[in-house]
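Morning!

This is the sequence you dropped in the shared folder:
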Amino acid sequence: MTTRDKIISFCDKAIYWEIIAIPFVASFSSAAVNIFIGFLVFTFLVKQLSGGIKNTGPTSIDIPFAFLIIIALVSFVNSVNMGSSIQGIFKLLKYGALLLIIPRQIKESGHIKRIVTAALLGLLLASLDGVYQLIFGVDFFRHKPYDTVIGLARLKAAFPHTNIFAGYLALFLPLSATLFLYHFKARSKLYSGIITFLGLFCLAFTFSRSAVLGLWLAILITGVIRRDKLVVSLLIASLLVAPFVLPKGIRKWSKTTHSAAEFLLNKERFVLNETSLNMIKHHPILGVGVNTYSLNYQKYKLHDTDEGTANTMWYAHNIFLQMAGETGILGLSAFLWLLAVLFKEWIKFYRRRKDDFSRIATLGIIMGVFAFLVNGLAETNLYYPKIAVLFWFETSLLLGFFNLNKEGAK
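The structure's back. Tokens below.
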């Protein structure tokens, strides 16, 4: 074996395990995620320079993602802070690296199964950390206390905020739930059931309404797709039961709200939505500049959320409005185009693929993406680096399934 062949072989092995490591370490460390992504990019480049990368052609979302980056670059013309906008571009390039590398370096189904296993183990670890935090008052990894609101403990495990933990759970729980319900047998079914139960328990104790709604809709759609009358019936029944099992603090607080929308969003989100629309009104085409929403908030706000946050640099708490605010209608259109292509590609894959694991796993992943997007109607989860990178990782993993299917069909 020549030196070149040894280098390529080493890079292949490194890339293989770096991809597996990312969803696992994401459960407790953002720094570890960035380190593994850095190694992944480095070993991919070394392999490329050594001539070990074969041209596999573009993925289905390469063009819309490229447009998203181009529009973000052009939005610099309206930026109030070039340094912040440059940081935004680097974030997009990091996500783009995942979309470039992962689909092209997944070459066999065994690799995908290990990645899925790592994601489930990460979900288990994060959920156990959440339970530990509820029992002992602090999480195991960082010894941080849970958040509190209206006298209720809100779990966040090793994540910076409760809503970020909820976004993580909403992204990965559909995968564990679908594999538990429709694929795993015997001991694997037991293990996945435990993981799913612990994740659901932690999500309930985040009290994140948008994340719960996103997961509820994702599982409901999954039940409809699988024609599972029992799951659909149980979910509909849960709506009738929920008002009677909510904690007393929530029931008391809900009486101070005036509509279902206010209950789901809180009053301040209406103010944030008005600010976002005002921002879009003034810069409809290219926005105020990528990664500068919070820097522009005070300039475009129409009302204060309350006296205590009058000078706060808020995020939009809506990923679609924030994207339109920062990169205009063009940026939002590119993102929606990307999503439309991704979901369309998955529908074709699901209908044609005969392999049970691939169909069920991709159903869980796409429903996780869906739950993440629903959660994003009331949160800025696509702009929280700790979980935004996982959204793009899951998207890359879907593309890996699609590419592997195409290779197998040749």
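Headline: Residues 160 and 386 are 9 Å apart (CA to CA).

More detail when I'm at my desk.
O.
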